[in-house]
Amino acid sequence: MKKLTIQTPTIILALFLGMVLYGCSSNEASSENNSAHEDHSAHNHEAEAETNGEDQHSEAFQQEKAGLQENEVLITGKQMKAAGIELSQITRQPLSKAVKSFGEVALAPSDEATVSTLIGGIIKDIRVIEGDYVRKGQVIARIVHPDIVDLQQNYLDASNQDEYLKLEYQRQKRLLEDSVNAEKTVQNARAAYQSNLARLQSLKKKLQLIHINPQKLTPQNIRDGYPVKAPITGHVAKVEINTGSHVTPQQSLFHVTANEKAHIDLKVYEQDISKVTPGQQLTFNLANSPLSQPMEGEVMKTAKRFDPEQRTALVHARIKDMREPLLPGMSVVAYIQTGDKEQNTLPDAAFVLDQGKNYVFMLKRKGKANNDNHKKEAEHAHQQEETQHEHDDNGHAGEASFFVFEKMLVRKGITQGAFSSFTTDKQDINTTRFVVNNAQAILSEMKKGAGGHSGHAH
After folding, report:
1. What tens digit of pLDDT does each residue of 73-108 get?
2. Which candidate, 131, 140, 179, 441, has a CA 20 to 30 Å from the CA of 217?
């Protein structure tokens, strides 16, 4: 009985120590689990932060996005470039009265030239291809032929004979004055001299026509050919020969056009002829492949000829802003402005229809994100008109990273020549820039943003 009493405290002490040790072990395991969980959470937050950091405007644009009004939309610079969106100011032009006409890009007869040859031969060297720009007097090919050698030889012979016959004629004149010889001898000497002189001048002109300088011609530098030179400055529109081909006199070799001097020839219908006068302004565009923005022109003169079959008269118009895509022969559609009341106009592609109303997108401000400190640089559009114009008219506004546009309600007027007039309640918009093409893309982005992105692009 005494032995059992001694063992009981020992058992109780062992159980107590076991519980203590188990508790410590559990606490350590829990601490390790908590630490691992904290490390895992921290890692997730860091990864998320890195992901957000990859978006260069995740922080820089937050303030701008938060401040957007209901009728505003934010477009990134990348979106502007991808959609090819362009900006421009409104133009003032009279659209109340206009004469619609059709025509084509044309050249005056003096602004295009056919290059031909005076003396036939073999094409030895062609130095241009179609589309090359050449200047007046530039050598574009070379022709060789034995007749060219003979022509130079004949000129040198005539030149030598000229000096001899001239001296002989003067000697016979002196003898006649001294009554030494007969007058018939003097007449023969004069005829021989003048005949050779005429031949010399004729050969001289022929050499000049084929661009060989007679004054520098000597027996030592007789050539086997002559250069073909461009008669005007312009582009080579057609090459009709190849190296080694034989050409005949007056054969067409090249066609050169001075495209930068092109104008437009318009056919005006009989009932509108009396409305068209020189000096009137017009807008026009290509009929088959219209440009993003119509071009401007001015009526120069009306031709004094009437076409009884088409019932039209020809009108010549000057092109104010000659562009590279314009080539002679292209068809155009023009609107001659005969009214005198100017209105605010934008290209028709600047307008969007939303719920039965017309809108345009006006640039409110733009900004640039700094990747280092995410500092936003936003300036109002009307404060940049004079200092940052170099890229705005082309649509991408230099180094701007985002653009904020306001959807502005307008009352659309008539449309002529791809321009539409409009009125609005907004004031002082003459220097404001507007989206002038692909405005529908911005409207789509605005609607997408309104569906869950606070009305902004992202």
Report:
1. 998 888 888 888 999 999 888 766 778 899 999 999
2. 140
CA distances 251 to 22, 115, 116, 120, 246, Å, are 113, 8, 5, 8, 10
| Inter-residue contact 282 to 337 (CB < 8 Å) | yes
How many C-beta atoms surround the C-beta of residue 17 within 10 A? 10
Phi, psi at 168, each rounded to 5°: -65, -40
Number of C-beta neighbours around residue 60 at 10 A? 22
d(CA 246, CA 232): 24
Closest CA to 201 of 217, 214, 216: 214
Name the 3-class secondary structure at 113.
Answer: strand
Domains of the chain: 62-93+343-450 (2.40.420.20), 98-107+263-337 (2.40.30.170), 116-145+224-261 (2.40.50.100), 149-216 (1.10.287)
Question: Encoding tokens for residue 143?
Answer: 């022709």
Among 294, 290, 275, 289, smallest CA distance to 336 is for 275
